[in-house]
Amino acid sequence: MKAAVAHQFKDPLRIEDVAQPEIRPGTVLVKVAACGVCHTDLHACHGDWPVKPKMPLIPGHEGVGTVVKKADDVTHIDIGDKVGIPWLHSACGHCEHCLQGNENLCPDQQNSGYSVDGSYAEYCLADAHYAIKIPENLDFVAAAPLFCAGVTTYKALKVSDAKPGQWVSIVGVGGLGHLAIQYAKAMGLNVIAVDTGENKLVLAKELGADICIDYENTDPAQHIQAQFGGVQAVICTAASKAAFDSAYQSVKRGGKCVLVGLPNDALPIPIFDTVLKGISVIGSIVGTRQDLIECLEFAASGKVRAIVQTQPLTNINQVFEQMIKSDIQGRIVLTMD
Ligand code: NAD
Ligand code: ZN
Ligand code: ZN
């Protein structure tokens, strides 16, 4: 099968012919139709994080397609079903976190396109317990970004505990942020969007952001504090430390700063301000299967729509170049044909 393969950190991916994965107990083989390109894939191929991915690696954790083979012990998914394969490739199922329904925190999880091969390929093996069915009325390309960008931002908003009518700030209007704006609006929140450049800010406005701030022209934290006395919650999706510093400063007393983007930096947090203002700083990592089902439902009912451009798998290196330059509107979705 054709796949895009990373061999060494920072080298371009190579389009290669590799062996189709073999079915094992508990798995299904998915003929991949499309796969969104998440900034995490770029971090993986660059070796940005303290925990390194397998090498060689087939990246991709927003893969969607049709089940073409299944192991005999798989009974809840059939051949022909349309499914997605999220970042949470599998979890142990019996640790404290799994038992509490927080399988996204399982210490024994495997991650698609990181610790196991992902969906930048014509076929991908999925753990049947973690492959999630796509609602009938969502096509593959529209569904793909929801399997990471969608569920991650939906979950981060849940974690933020912000209530309808309160203000949240979405920092970064990229693959994640453009969906965060829509989930936030659908949840009845008032939204400030922060990014730079007319393209991103016009998109944010179109997607329902009430206020858009260009961080190159206006200091977001100063503006937000002056106008509102801070936001109840900020969801920081940018892969930039500067964005996190500013996000922290934007929160009001008692508010929450939800960390989502993953630059490989430390975030020195002022203890005095955090204590006296009762600010929470919380990490949020993708979501559970139930979060994913809910996030897909928002899209199936028309409340949220990923903005996508498609590119053939063979163009992946150009797509990464565009991502490095922040030159993507919404999400780029690779197609396998
Ligand atoms: P993206 O490249 O599509 O979007 C990032 C956006 O941030 C761009 O629009 C860019 O212009 C903007 N940005 C950069 N610096 C900024 C700043 N200082 N202020 C405001 N905006 C700024 O990336 P993405 O796919 O949306 O992923 C973003 C980050 O989230 C990555 O680090 C990725 O690894 C991480 N991520 C985390 C999770 C999780 O579960 N926590 C899940 C998926 C992705
Ligand atoms: Zn577990
Ligand atoms: Zn992702």
TrEMBL record:
GO molecular function, one term: zinc ion binding
Enzyme Commission numbers on file: 1.1.1.1
Residue ranges annotated for the Enoyl reductase (ER) domain, each copy included: 10-334
Cofactor(s) needed by this chain: Zn(2+)
Highest rank taxon of the organism: Bacteria
PROSITE patterns: ADH_ZINC
Entries under Pfam families matching the protein: ADH_N, ADH_zinc_N
Keywords linked to the UniProt accession: Metal-binding, NAD, Oxidoreductase, Zinc
Stated family: Belongs to the zinc-containing alcohol dehydrogenase family.
Listed name of the protein: alcohol dehydrogenase
Organism of origin: Pseudoalteromonas luteoviolacea
